[in-house]
Amino acid sequence: xxxxxxxxxxxxxxxxxxxxxxxxxxxxxxxxxxxxxxxxxxxxxxxxxxxxxxxxxxxxxxxxxxxxxxxxxxxxxxxxxxxxxxxxxxxxxxxxxxxxxxxxxxxxxxxxxxxxxxxxxxxxxxxxxxxxxxxxxxxxxxxxxxxxxxxxxxxxxxxxxxxxxxxxxxxxxxxxxxxxxxxxxxxxxxxxxxxxxxxxxxxxxxxxxxxxxx
Length: 214
Fold this sequence. Notes:
By secondary structure, this protein is an alpha+beta fold.
């Protein structure tokens, strides 16, 4: 198992009434290498954008919607060299080894049964699929994008080291892993570009050299 992963858990199964599916996002601004972290000004804690999946909504749609609603930023997925176990489709079998936008992390959290009026919500497991998104250097935060219970949310752009100090460990580890993938991707892309330019220069030199047999 990865150093970022928990030990394997026993095989399990839950009915629809005993699990919640959600999606969250680590939002990076590549131009500044900063991340978006949210602050609940009344309860005074820091967190990442995430939330439950709506009926009929994909996890990818959930991640983008929650990122926008809670942060106020229009976020796009950030392709990364992510060692996903998802295979490439039949017409593109090498898709999984190129930068992709698959989830980079899954976290689980057990929640207790709750009584609301005459209704009892049973206990269950909350599974959150984490993605990595990006905003441009000139991104402008919109106001009033959240739900009524999210009016105290404030979005802050900050260095990764600062974010790791403020977040609870269950979300800090997601940021650490996402940041490692981001840095790895940047380094690989730069190396690939260096090799591409070297090949182009070599080919240009060979075509411009005089033919000794002419």
